[in-house]
């Protein structure tokens, strides 16, 4: 690269992660490689993190499951499908013969490994979390090689790097936790020499290894986490996650056609959105960048000139008071009510202990200060079990009539308005309830987290879409245009 170009480069390191659809076909991979190359001209160092091709992780899981279930034909077919998908992409992308042959050889080895793993699972009739991790890790291991080979063919020095030699975790297969300081030194030792030699590392997302070197994974969707971890370990300037939408939206565009991309969000807001069902980054996955205050961008591989959404820790109050509205569907509201609950300690604790025994996650809780009822929201598929559990726990109180009844209202939706700027801003909830009132939407229950980053209301499923649209129209759009 000539002196001029080197001088124009921005100091510092950029980590870019490409999700499954962004590297899920030859067209997408071509586009992703172009993005990497363009940014490599702008930054001193670039580290790439890739997911498996879209659909591959799911298919690998299906391979392992059919192997253990004894369906030999099915798993052989499934392995074949994955192999054909990769082969087609390699055929479409690679023209440089030497690189192509090398890539094909590497992929063949990985497919052999996949076949023997499945065969082993089939013969043993046993599928451990450890075995599952070995199988699913192959999607990322294959794709990192494909993406790196294309970069090389395009004239860029690049190497596929397995995160098993970078991120070291505990033994919780399928949801492993990184051992931070150890992983930091491993990552720096492995990647800094490559960067020093102007090589672009293409790192497998999602996968890691325990101290013995056995492959682990960070949980589904874990590639974002990989990118955030590498950003932290390598003191990145920024982390960009490339996906197939223009950024984080003010609402689900399927419900609200006028939904727009949010140009800037705070870490707190994006965490709240994830908790409340918007399909964005999981709070856990961005924790490393939050702690280091590294800005995170969500960008669209298929519309790279669009800036996307920037997420950072900066000033909250300058922004609109409510930034987004989300809905979680398929829920039931459970109410425990009775006058005898007044002032009796332990009712709430016992109620939630009973719920916890069924491993139902409680999405929202609300109790009136009269203490005559507690209500909480759970996924509907847990409704019968939770009702029974609470009734059993409160059997004595129910016979004494201290508790009158425990009942469920099915088909409810939690609609949440999110905005870090609502903090210490009076009148936000009035505005929100005013908007719902205008359309005669009945609010069944209300909760506001003490973090004050969001307000949630429970409405009947039949009212949910309208509630979301109404909040979007009256609260978000009005404030954006103010
Ligand atoms: N391929 C993995 C999954 O589908 C990880 C990721 O894409 O982030 O869950
Ligand atoms: Mg993914």
Give the neighbour order of strands across the main sheet. Answer: 3-5-2-1-8-10-11-9
| Mean residue pLDDT | 92
Counting structural domains, the number is 2
Which residue ranges are poorly predicted, with pLDDT under 50 across at least 5 consecutive positions? none
Q: Look at the structure and give the CATH class of the largest domain.
A: Alpha Beta
Q: Give me the number of helical elements.
A: 15
Briefly note the CATH topology name of the largest domain: Carbamate kinase
What is the strand tally?
Answer: 17
Structural class: alpha/beta
Annotated CATH homologous superfamily of the largest domain: Acetylglutamate kinase-like
Largest sheet: 8 strands, mixed
- Please report which band the strand proportion falls in: under 5%, 5-15%, 15-25%, 25-35%, 35-45% or over 45%: 15-25%
Label the CATH architecture of the largest domain.
3-Layer(aba) Sandwich
Ligands in the structure? aspartic acid, magnesium ion
What is the radius of gyration?
25 Å
Helix content: 40-55%
User: What distance separates the N and C termini?
Assistant: 48 Å
Q: Give the overall silhouette.
A: globular
């Amino acid at each position: 690269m000539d002196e001029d170009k080197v001088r124009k480069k921005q100091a510092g390191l950029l980590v870019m992660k490409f999700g499954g659809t962004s590297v899920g076909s030859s067209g997408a991979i071509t586009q992703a490689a172009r993005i990497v190359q363009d940014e490599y001209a702008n930054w001193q160092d670039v580290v790439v993190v890739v997911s498996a091709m879209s659909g591959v992780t799911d298919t690998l899981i299906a391979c392992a499951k059919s192997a253990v279930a004894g369906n030999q034909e099915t798993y052989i077919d499934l392995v074949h499908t994955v192999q054909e998908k990769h082969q087609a992409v390699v055929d479409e992308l690679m023209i440089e013969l030497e690189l192509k042959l090398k890539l094909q050889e590497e992929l063949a080895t990985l497919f052999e490994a996949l076949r023997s793993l499945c065969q082993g699972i089939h013969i043993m009739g046993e599928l451990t979390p450890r075995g599952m991790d070995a199988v699913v890790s192959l999607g990322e291991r294959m794709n990192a090689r494909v993406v790196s080979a294309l970069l090389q063919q395009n004239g860029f020095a690049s190497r596929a790097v397995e995160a098993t030699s970078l991120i070291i975790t505990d033994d919780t297969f399928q949801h492993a936790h990184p051992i931070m300081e150890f992983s930091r030194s491993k990552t720096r030792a492995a990647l800094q020499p490559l960067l020093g030699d102007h090589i672009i590392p293409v790192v497998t997302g999602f996968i890691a290894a325990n101290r013995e070197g056995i492959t682990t994974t960070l949980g589904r969707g874990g590639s974002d986490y990989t990118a955030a971890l590498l950003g932290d370990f390598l003191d990145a300037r920024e982390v960009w996650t490339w996906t197939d939408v223009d950024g984080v939206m003010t609402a689900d565009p399927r419900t609200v056609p006028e939904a727009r991309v949010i140009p800037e969000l705070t870490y707190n807001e994006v965490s709240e959105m994830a908790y409340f069902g918007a399909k964005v980054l999981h709070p856990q996955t961005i924790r490393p960048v939050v702690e280091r205050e590294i800005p995170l961008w969500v960008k669209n591989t298929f519309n790279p000139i669009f800036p996307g959404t920037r997420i950072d820790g900066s000033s909250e109050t300058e922004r609109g008071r409510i930034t987004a509205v989300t809905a979680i569907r398929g829920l039931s509201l459970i109410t425990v009510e009775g006058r005898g609950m007044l002032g009796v300690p332990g009712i709430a604790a016992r109620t939630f202990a009973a719920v916890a025994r069924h491993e139902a996650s409680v999405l929202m809780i609300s109790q009136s200060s009269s203490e005559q009822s507690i209500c909480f929201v759970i996924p509907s598929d847990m409704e019968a079990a939770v009702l029974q559990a609470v009734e059993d726990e409160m059997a004595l109180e129910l016979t004494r009539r201290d508790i009158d009844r425990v009942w469920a209202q099915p088909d409810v939706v939690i609609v949440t308005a999110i905005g870090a700027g609502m903090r210490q801003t009076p009148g936000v909830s009035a505005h929100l309830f005013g908007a719902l009132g205008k359309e005669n939407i009945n609010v069944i229950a209300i909760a506001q987290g003490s973090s004050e980053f969001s307000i949630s209301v429970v409405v009947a499923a039949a009212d949910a879409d309208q509630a979301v649209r109404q909040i979007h129209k009256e609260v978000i759009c009005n404030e954006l245009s103010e």
